[in-house]
Write a structure and sequence with these properties.
Distance between the termini: 19 Å
CATH architecture of the largest domain: 2-Layer Sandwich
Number of strands: 5
CATH class of the largest domain: Alpha Beta
CATH superfamily of the largest domain: Ribonuclease H-like superfamily/Ribonuclease H
Number of domains: 2
InterPro entries: DDE_dom, IS_Transposase, Transpos_IS6
Protein name: Putative transposase
GO molecular function, one term: DNA binding
Strand content: 5-15%
Radius of gyration: 19 Å
Number of helices: 9
Shape: globular
Keywords: DNA recombination, DNA-binding, Plasmid, Transposition
């Protein structure tokens, strides 16, 4: 996959990728990133940072997703309400049993068709299919699986079985508050997809490993990001 080209930009690639990384990795506004860079002696306007995220963010996210290993076979699905331009919409999410964010999809309804859209989008990748679906108790999930002839795959709807997917809404809520709500469904979809791709790389389960192993995982994550951004270490 072709790396992003930084030719013609007044800032060096290392500065551009750092600004994009800061915005996508943390719950920061463009002005927050502007101030953090200014503290390091890098003077760049928040509007330039916004254009950089919109230009390079999708390319980097695609390269990050392409480099991810095959997800765990147990897929968790969940939905949550989000406010977009004053309208209540639904954000459908798919994560695997290890917390890897698989898909995020903004939909206007919370019904069987929306559940099918998320499932079909997840199944588009050749050779990848779940061993089991884990969902909440909403009837739309069972109806979607039956209509898609996926009813033979194990479908778990037990109480607390879907905590993994429900926990994935925490970073979404955090960023939603920082942005004071989303403005358009399309921009919300792009924003959440870019954040998910970055989170997958940098979310390291530090409570399950030693400090030394955690540092190694973190260094590997930085290397993966720089490679996707087309910037030498």
């Amino acid at each position: 996959m072709t790396p992003p080209s930084y030719a013609g930009y007044c800032f060096p690639p290392s500065v551009i990728q750092r600004a994009v990384w800061m915005y996508l990795r943390f719950a920061l506004s463009y002005r927050d990133v502007e101030e953090l860079l200014a503290e390091r002696g890098i003077i760049v306007a928040s509007e330039s940072i916004r254009r950089g995220v919109l230009t390079f963010g999708p390319v980097i996210a695609r390269r990050l997703r392409a480099s991810r290993p095959t997800p765990h076979g147990r897929w968790h699905l969940d939905e949550m309400l989000v406010q977009i331009a004053g309208r209540q919409m639904d954000l459908w999410r798919a994560v695997d049993a290890e917390g890897e964010g698989l898909d995020r999809l903004v939909q206007s309804r919370r019904d069987r068709r929306s559940a099918q859209t998320l499932m079909r989008q997840r199944l588009k990748k050749p050779g990848i299919a779940p061993d089991a679906w884990v969902t909440g108790k909403r009837p739309a999930y069972g109806a979607a699986l039956r209509e898609m002839t996926l009813s033979r795959v194990d479908h778990a709807q037990r109480q607390r079985a879907n905590n993994r997917a429900e926990s994935s809404q925490v970073p979404v809520r955090r960023r939603q508050r920082k942005l004071q709500g989303f403005k358009l469904p399309r921009s919300a979809q792009q924003f959440l997809s870019l954040h998910a791709a970055t989170d997958n790389v940098f979310t390291v389960p530090c409570h399950l490993v030693s400090a030394r192993t955690h540092r190694l995982f973190r260094a590997e994550a930085f290397q993966t990001w720089r490679s996707a951004a087309g910037v030498a270490a």
